[in-house]
Each structure stands twice: as structure tokens, then as C-alpha cells.
Write a structure and sequence with these properties.
Elements lengths: L3 E3 L5 E2 L35 E3 L2
Antiparallel strand pairs: 1-2, 1-3
Length: 53
């Protein structure tokens, strides 16, 4: 599973860690996160993330 980076603040979403504080359990692929999820660091939408190479 790929990691994704917020293009605004640089936060990296790691599927292995998830985002448990916001209801995303570890092991959740970025594609499976609801579109309503926002960056936990700066609050931008999921569409402002890009895959890390």
C-alpha cells in the first residue's frame, strides 16, 4: 500500500498506521478512506494528497 502526502502541509498518510484518532484503522489503504476525511494536520480535503514515489 502506498503512502500519500498532503501537498499543503507535508503530512504523510501511512496505511500501516492509519489515522485511528479520526476513525481510520491501521491497514486502511488511502483509496478506502472516505472522501469526507480531512488532513489531521491542516484540515484540507483528501483531494489535496498525492502518492509518494
Amino acid at each position: 500500500m502506498k503512502k500519500y502526502k498532503c501537498t499543503v502541509c507535508g503530512y504523510v498518510y501511512d496505511p500501516a498506521a492509519g489515522d485511528p484518532e479520526h476513525g481510520i484503522v491501521p491497514g486502511t489503504a488511502f483509496e478506502q478512506i472516505p472522501d469526507s476525511w480531512i488532513c489531521p494536520e491542516c484540515g484540507v480535503s483528501k483531494s489535496d494528497f498525492e502518492p509518494l514515489a
